[in-house]
Amino acid sequence: MELTWTEKDGKIIVSLFERIDTRTSPSLEKTLNELLEQGYTSIVLDFLKTSYISSAGLRVLLGAAKKLPGGKRLQLTNLDSNVYKVFKLTGFTTIFDILPYSD
Known about the structure:
The structure is a single chain. The chain is 35% helix and 22% strand. By secondary structure, the chain is α/β, with parallel strands linked by helices. It has one domain (4-98): Transcription Regulator spoIIAA (2-Layer Sandwich). The strands form two sheets. The chain has a five-stranded mixed beta sheet with strand order 1-2-4-6-7, with no helix packed on it. A two-stranded parallel sheet has the order 3-5. Strand 1 (4-8) and strand 2 (11-15) form a beta hairpin. The longest helix has 13 residues, at 25-37. The protein is globular and about 30 Å long.
């Protein structure tokens, strides 16, 4: 599965899958690693279509966050309430910048 991403206002916006789980996490990891290797450090993950994230997905996001240079954080937007609860319960809301809904 391939992810789509676009560049907007100096940021890379990655549109995510409906489910981020053991099946889709490798593709997400590959995409994020490629973007980081290309030198992109301002990355927004768009959860508009995402209704589920597993521990495998959280692991991929944490790994990408650790690869960012000092002071940079992954930004997440359009989290539905269930996905936000997962981030809140795991304490990941302190690791990532949670942006308001955008279009």
